Every structure is written in C-alpha cells, then in structure tokens.
C-alpha cells in the first residue's frame, strides 16, 4: 500500500516525493534564476500555499519526512556547475532551538543527487535575530557573522549556497561576500522558495 500524501493526508502519494497528484499540482512552480544584487539564485517554488506551510512544519516542528518534497523542487532546477555545495549555517542558539539545520539536511540530499561535494567547514557566529529586521538592519547584523574552520586552508573555487527560503537575500549576500573575501571565485545560490519577486532571468 502506498503511503499517504504528506500534505493532505487524504490520498495516496503517487511518487517518491510523497505527494498526491492534486497536491503536487498545487505547488506554485517558479523554476527561475533571480538576482539579488550581484548574486544569482535559482528558485524552485513561490513561497505561497502549500509550500510555505510545508517549510514551516519542516523548520519548526522538525518534520523531516517532508524533505522529499523540497528535494523534488530542487531536482527540477539546473544542476549547478560548482565545486561544492554549502548549506547556509545556523547560529548556535538557533541550532539548539531547532535541533537541526534545515538547509544542511537538504544540502546533504542534493550533494548526493548531484554528486557534488558538500562543504561543512563554515560556521555562523551568534548575532541578533534576523526576523523582524529591515533589509539594511539584516545586512548590518550579518557583518562578521561567519567563520571558516582554521584547518581549511583552501576553499573550492565555485560554491553554491543552499537555503530554504529567500526573503531579503541579506543572509545569502553576506555569506557570499565573506566567501569571496576568503578567495572563492564564484558564489551562487539555490533555494526551495522565494517570498518576493526579485529581478529574474526568464
């Protein structure tokens, strides 16, 4: 017997991504590359029902069984031509609160699917919460927010950042700037969903 759809819980899931046909058709696909200043970011879905609800359940209720839905979206995007993937790190406080880094769990799956190494040596320092801050405040709050393991002497030349939701883009921009300052030549982003209509390449 097939498992139930992870979203509606009413119908049988019709594929390995655990959605019924109806719920899968409800996902508002974007499948485009947007630009946040000088950072190119691939976006799978619009941050609207039902993907917003699924991401909320995943992040705040540790519903790890929803991961296949997000993986489904990212596998429909173009495989990044990079040397490594890097999940956007969480601060120690946030990591303790949630018990896991939602972006890292997704990045692990995509690293396996795309056969791209996963970089795990970048950490996030403590800082103010980002929620509720303006874009300028978020960027200022992220100054000096990241650190590389001192045992790593050379970083990959091309890195794609993996995150769940693109809001203002401040976190991705700050992390990208940090990596470039550390010698990374090319940084891009890949997210499950975006809340805003950033400038896109159609």
Spans of at least 5 consecutive residues whose pLDDT stays below 50 are: none
Number of domains: 1
CATH class: Alpha Beta
Q: Distance between termini? A: 41 Å
Could you tell me the number of beta strands?
9
The CATH architecture term is 3-Layer(aba) Sandwich
Within the CATH hierarchy, at the fold level, what is the topology?
Answer: Rossmann fold
What can you see in these coordinates?
The structure is a single chain. The protein is an alpha/beta fold. The chain has a single domain, classed as 3-Layer(aba) Sandwich (Rossmann fold). Helices cover 32% and strands 24% of the residues. It contains 7 helices and 9 strands; from the N terminus they run H-E-E-H-H-E-H-H-E-E-H-E-E-H-E-E. The strands form 2 sheets. Strands 4-3-7-8-2-1-9 form a 7-stranded mixed sheet. Strands 5-6 form a two-stranded antiparallel sheet. Strand 7, helix 7 (170-181) and strand 8 form a beta-alpha-beta unit. It starts with 20 loop residues before the first helix and ends with a strand. The mean pLDDT is 87.
What's this model, at a glance?
This protein is an alpha/beta fold and 202 residues long.
Offer a few descriptive terms.
single chain, about 200 residues, alpha/beta, Rossmann fold, seven-stranded mixed sheet, two-stranded antiparallel sheet, globular
Describe the protein's topology.
Elements: H1 21-26, E1 29-36, E2 39-46, H2 51-60, H3 67-75, E3 84-87, H4 92-98, H5 102-114, E4 118-119, E5 122-124, H6 135-141, E6 146-148, E7 158-166, H7 170-181, E8 186-194, E9 199-201
Parallel strand pairs: 2-8, 3-4, 3-7, 7-8
Antiparallel strand pairs: 1-2, 1-9, 5-6
Helix pairs in contact: 3-5, 6-7
